[in-house]
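Z., the sequence and structure:
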Amino acid sequence: MTVTLRSLETAVPPTILVQTEARDVFAAQPGLTRLGRRLVQTCFDQSAIDTRHTAVAEMSTTVHPDSPVFFDLAAGLLLNPGTKARNDLFAVEASTLFIEAAAAAVAACDGVGPADITHVITVSCTGFFNPGPDYKIVRALGLDPAVQRYHLGFMGCYAAFPALRAAKAFCDADPQAVVLVVSAELCSLHVRTSNDPDTIMGSSLFADGAAAAVVTARELPSTRAVIDLDHFETVLTPVGEDSMAWNIGDQGFEMVLTTYVPRIIDDHIVGALEPLLAHEPALAARPYRDIRHWAIHPGGRSILDKVEAKLQLTADQLVPSRETLRNFGNMSSATVMFVLKHILGLPAVDARESICAMAFGPGLTVETGLFTKVAAVPANDPRRTAGAAVGDLENAAAR
């Protein structure tokens, strides 16, 4: 029995931050030291990000509230609201994104409607409220009130993998299960002006977005490519607990993201992949670049650089991750889903193509997944069950 991700849709808030404009705002804040201004310039300019989206409408150049909470446009000042004000906005704006992404994923899934959904898994680390986003989705989409609901909170950038792994487990247990997985992150709610390098780094990288997927083992025809969820693994690196963290402060959530993180990934990424690739010895025996697609969570440009160099991947294999970073920034747990959606949209070379996916988070935690992209063919087509990523191996042998 194969568990398949049959639709994947994304959503972003309408307000766009242009990276150079955001840089200038952060660099002009009072209280920054000379070193702080230099760090702002460096972090923003070297981020490899052009645009990001934010749920904080006040960050728009066209919004002028009488009593600004986050940004005083007239004075050019970043304000410093408390955690409650930030979380109150999360409850409103995250609900919109959760519902938008979820509705789009269900509508895009051939052969599945709202009445078919048996489980809802929601993911976020940037806010809390209850009744939560799982409840909001059930009500807004008119799902069965008895649908099973689960929320994964405060895990960080890797949380899409535990959510997809749980969805696979539900479908393995019940072949008729249809699981809706939805991640929404409003990282920009927690930005602030500071001379602290970690805070400046986070302000240059993080953004808002949502992604939703429908996962099921039901055999259904599809008019678009889908992804078979083959294997998942989790690895904790022996170092890094103090290098990436996410804490709750009085003025929002506080990111710890040190410059040591890319080095940790460089030192331990090969070991983190070993238990995953052990599931597929034919793939494990070949160079990493022979796995056609790589869905790497773009935690930052330097992380992608380290992954590409260490695994000796081609520049083309990192395009989905780099383009996601360039156009959307780091949206925490939702980001790798944007990368997978990019891969789904690429023209198919073979009926079945391997995807190695990876995300990093506090701990340092490395979550990995080995998937198969399946071209849009009917459920009874022999190519649909011809064996995992045969085209990948045949093409590799030809090279």
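The chain has a mean pLDDT of 93. The longest helix spans residues 83-108.

Let me know what you think.
H.
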